[in-house]
Structures are given as C-alpha cells and as structure tokens.
Write a structure and sequence with these properties.
Order of helices and strands: HHHHHHHHHH
Structural class: mainly alpha
Number of helices: 10
Helix content: over 70%
Number of domains: 2
C-alpha cells in the first residue's frame, strides 16, 4: 500500500509539469516581426497625416492603411486575424477621434485600457492568483499544481507585478502626453511602449515559468519512492 501511495503522489506531482506544448508564441500569434510593423503603421500614419493635413485626413489615412494591410495579407494568403483585429481597433479609435474632433482621443481607449490592465494584474497578486501564472499555465496546459506551491506563486507574483508596472507606466506616460495635447509624442509612446515593452514583460513571465517548472520537478523527484521502499 505504501508503494502504491508513493507512486500515485509522484505521478500526480509530475503530471502538470511534464506536459509539452507546441502552441505559437505571442509574437507568432501577432504575425511575427512583420505583424508588429503592421500594428505600428496605422498609428504612425495617423500622427503624420494629422500633422500634415489635419484630423479628418489622419482618420481616413489610418483606416486606409489598415484596410490595405488586410488586403495585402489576404492576397498573400496569410492569417487575417491580426489584420482584422487591427482594422477593428483602428476603426473604433478613429471613430472616437472623428466624433470628438480631437486627434488625441485616437489614443484614449489605449490609455484607459493600460490603467485597467495595471489594476487587474495588481489585484490578481493581492488575491493570490497571479495572472501571469493563470494565463501561462492555462494556455500551455500545465495544470494548477503551481497554485499550491508557495515558491511558484512567488515567481509568478514577480512576473505579474512586472506586467502591472508596464501597464502602469504606459498609462502614466501616455496620460501625461494626452493632458499636454502632445499627439506626436502620444503616437511615439504607443509604438515604443507597445509590444516592445510588453516583450520585456513576457521575458519575466518566461523566467517565472521555467523557475516554477524546475522547482515543481524537484519536488516531484523528492516524492518518488526510493528503491528500498518498493521491496
């Protein structure tokens, strides 16, 4: 009975951390480096067109660029998901800017979304369910064993706080430029503090995942029955 019990415990402890995954990375889901360029183009176009020809020209130019990207992806038989998502986002933000008559409102949704992201990530740490761990382990199929391990939660707490800091920094910087009507700086901040900065946060998440997996595997090895226990 002791031998069977030890085997069950070892098997259960190992199962969540031994599952492999071939799911695409965040960068791959965004369309790779080319996809990141495509996401930045409407913003850059909006700022340049606004400076040159005014708000209406900027709105039309940004939407036109997004439509052009979608058509180009369709022609090359590439994934339309990033392009359609970008087109929808540009249409909404451009519509708000057109309605209010203010170029800076093109960035309004993104600014408040950053604040919401910071609050959600911070709250997840306070409720002992760090969102970095929840998202990573749910998308990679590694189970929930990390939730019962204090050290693993600590690793994911650090990663989640890093992401919260990134979203908070986005909000503070872009809100400052919004209040000062610096549309050009808003566009630059949105590009620079977008996926490039998020990529740094994901590196922290990847570190936390590796550290957690390593620790959970070490715990599983300690629970394995020794040779004399199986006699």
């Amino acid at each position: 009975m002791t031998h069977i019990h030890h085997q069950e415990v070892a098997s259960t402890a190992q199962q969540p951390v031994s599952t492999g995954t071939n799911k695409p990375s965040v960068l791959e889901q965004a369309g790779g480096a080319q996809g990141l360029v495509y996401m930045a183009l409407p913003v850059i176009t909006f700022v340049l067109a606004n400076n040159a020809r005014g708000l209406k020209a900027a709105v039309l130019a940004a939407v036109a660029v997004s439509v052009g990207i979608a058509v180009e992806r369709l022609w090359r038989r590439e994934s339309l998901q990033p392009a359609l998502g970008g087109l929808f986002g540009v249409a909404v933000t451009a519509g708000i800017s057109w309605y209010t008559g203010s170029a800076k409102d093109y960035f309004l949704i993104g600014i408040w979304a950053s604040l919401a992201g910071a609050v959600v990530f911070l709250a997840s740490v306070l409720t002992r369910r760090p969102l970095a761990g929840v998202l990573w382990n749910s998308t990679t199929g590694k189970g929930t064993a990390w939730r019962d391990d204090k050290r693993s939660r600590r690793y994911y707490d650090i990663a989640t706080l890093a992401l919260a800091a990134i979203f908070a920094a986005r909000f503070v910087v872009q809100q400052y430029f919004y209040e000062t009507d610096a549309v050009g700086s808003l566009g630059a901040a949105k590009v620079v503090m977008g996926y490039p900065l998020l990529g740094l946060g994901l590196l922290v998440v990847a570190w936390a995942a590796r550290a957690s997996d390593k620790h959970l595997k070490a715990v599983a090895r300690q629970r394995r029955p020794r040779p004399h226990e199986s006699v």
